[in-house]
Amino acid sequence: MTPAIVRPQVGLGVIIRRRGKVLLGKRRGDHGGDTWCYPGGHLEQGESWETCARREVREETGMEIDNPRFVSATNDIYQSGRHYVTVIMVCDWQSGEARVKEPEKCLGWDWFDWDALPAPLFLSTQHFVDLGIDPMSV
């Protein structure tokens, strides 16, 4: 019997800019619990990156975003064996205040200066930071 082929999943992270800061949430659960990351999730079948960014931000924070656009991608292989290719989008805040809409996944949201991010960061977030791209200037 041939073993099943396991392929990486496609994740999408959304860097939201507002008043010179970015939004990060403290994760909970077995996948990256107690690490900080921007809103995001899985790309759905047939969904554009822009639509996914708007949906994930709305589902997780209740906020609306403007002008989501691709900035980079990361290749993230977690110690658990999970493997994601994460599409990183940058956008601007449009409306609403960040609130925890998925308490089983997030302990809370806060705004941070890009050069003063909290630690530890979720792997895909850390990989993006390591690229040296400043999301405030793209």
Quick summary:
This protein is 16% helix and 41% strand. It is an alpha+beta fold.
CATH superfamily: Nucleoside Triphosphate Pyrophosphohydrolase
CATH architecture: Alpha-Beta Complex
Write down the secondary-structure element order. EEEEHEEEH
What best-fitting shape do the alpha-carbon axes yield? globular
Described by its quaternary structure, the protein is: single chain
Report how far the terminal alpha carbons are from each other. Answer: 49 Å
CATH fold topology: Nucleoside Triphosphate Pyrophosphohydrolase
Structure, explained:
The chain contains two helices and seven strands. It has a single domain (9-130), classed as Alpha-Beta Complex (Nucleoside Triphosphate Pyrophosphohydrolase). The protein has helices at residues 49-61, 123-131; strands at residues 9-18, 21-27, 36-37, 40-42, 64-77, 83-95, 106-112.
Q: Key features?
A:
138 residues, alpha+beta, globular
Secondary structure elements and their pairing?
Blueprint: E1 9-18, E2 21-27, E3 36-37, E4 40-42, H1 49-61, E5 64-77, E6 83-95, E7 106-112, H2 123-131
Parallel strand pairs: 1-6
Antiparallel strand pairs: 1-2, 1-4, 2-3, 2-7, 5-6
